[in-house]
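ok so I'm stuck.
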Amino acid sequence: MLEEVQLSTFYTDNEKLLVAVDSVIFGYEDGQMKLLLFKRKIEPFKDKWSLIGRFVSPKEDIREAASSVLYDYTGLKNIFLEQLFTFGKVFRDPGSRVISIVYYSLTRINDFEKKVVEKYDSKWFSLNEIPELVLDHSEMVSKARMKLIEKTQQYPIGIDLLPEKFTMPQLFNLYQSLYDRKLDDRNFRKKIEGMNILKKLNEKDKRTSKKGAFLYKFDKKKYNQLLKKGYDFRI
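replied:
not stuck anymore, here's the structure
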């Protein structure tokens, strides 16, 4: 009986904390890796640029909350989503004692429900033109970008960022933008072709030249086979 009393007071006597989920949402457009930000609607830092997030409700799983944030602010479901890091410095948020669990996701910008994004005053920014962010959100973005670069060792990120059909130059520019450095085009093609995870189509994209560039699709079956073998997808 005494143990039951001690157990109940153990929970009630301790101060409650707020738990939040924040989402680092990456997209790719016009040859650039981009980040989705929105203007904060409340104080502190009202009208400043921020990541998208909210508090977790008492009856909600953490991942459920992260998925809900993505759907509420983008209109998308079932997209790449992975937990990144937990931010818990005591004074990280002047509004209250808040612990934030950060997720990052990969999306096709063209899939977005534009009306949903506009509703929340959101905007896509190139990774090289990110404005000043509130709280520790810049650190969150930096960690997410490093994690994404690491992720390319096990995962062909173009599956989630490029259209279903894409050209080799589009894929090349995607990696070059993510790494923020120039890559050797010949070595890149050799590495990609060596993976044998692309299907070359009898179609061309002629929007930029009369000759055009062949379109490709990812072969997910072959990718999954390489994944089981522990293949290194690093470029």
